[in-house]
Amino acid sequence: MATSLCCGLHTTPPGSPQLHQWKLSKKKGRCPSLNRVKSATVTSKLELSPLPYLMNSLEPYMSSETLEQHWGRHQRAHVESLNEQIEGTGFEEMSLEDIVVASYNKGDPHPSFKHAAQIWNHDFFWNSMKPGGGGKPSGVLLELIERDFGSFEGMLRELKRAASTQFGSGWAWLVYKANRLDVENAVNPCPTEEDNKLVVAKSPNAVNPLVWDYSPLLGIDVWEHAYYLDYENRRADYVSVFLEKLVSWEVVSSRLEMAMAQASGRGKQGDGNEEDEMSDGEAVEMYLDSESDDSDAE
Length: 298
Ligand SMILES: [Fe+2]
Hints:
alpha+beta; minor pseudopilin epsh fold; 3-stranded antiparallel beta sheet; two-stranded antiparallel sheet; 9 helices; disordered N terminus; metal ion binding; oxidoreductase
């Protein structure tokens, strides 16, 4: 029997602070929450989500020309392509997040994956920034950063390294790793790390941490279209400015709070259901699609 990864319903835009709920199901290869999803998610065409700020409000660090191209052209193209591809298919009744995970298909992606994931990734990215961003986080987020990376500066170094070493197009992520999944026989970006901690990861093309069952807290777009108008080929400069002048640590803190609450809730749920879900010893497989490198010209 195939094992499927699936997640719960969401009615808020994927980029906004929210709790993404996962369940691991081996029952008939479909998400047990889909019945609930049907009543809460969009069954008509997806629309391009509006930016959470004015087009010129991130200047001089990210220009309105970049946003017009990046959001208004690249992301819009993904929305239009996804709508065309999923019309008349089972994906049409799913939430965007469910489409991302289902279409990833354990590393053998359906053609709609790159469009669904890039829509989700970009909504998440836009909501990770704010005018007057940057600075330093506080509270639980800072405590965990210092616990897991030694210092805030240590985390920044690791995140910048991931962003600068992602070959070709892709993303760098700060994530909360809280899965309980047996990832044996899988290509997992942080297989030796303990759970319930912050980790940095990078991913090629459209792949995002949802397919690893990680909770993304911050995503940096390192596709060339994200920075070439403002920084030409200087990716490292763009990443530094993003972290020093644009990132909203308040949003990242909110995402962490929800990820930890979700992990806690799932742990309690797992205490009662783990035997039912994992009892047949079937290996859970997760794969990282690192072979192909999509063109930056979307
Ligand atoms: Fe992008």
